[in-house]
Amino acid sequence: MGQVSPMKSTDLFSLYSEIIMRNLENHPGIKVGGQNINNLRYADDTVLIAENKEDLQKLLNILKKKAERKG
């Protein structure tokens, strides 16, 4: 039986961040082409997008809570 290749830390980070960021899907952002967008991600970079400071703070609070739960 062959050895199983361990996941790279970058793969684990991508999986972890995807799970956490999905919690933002139904929260306010900006409309682009009729679609709500509240975050942009590339590799290990993330940008949160909101129309005002209050909505941005809500996004941050949600991410913080979810990240703390996931460890």
From TrEMBL:
Protein name: Retrovirus-related pol polyprotein from type-1 retrotransposable element r2
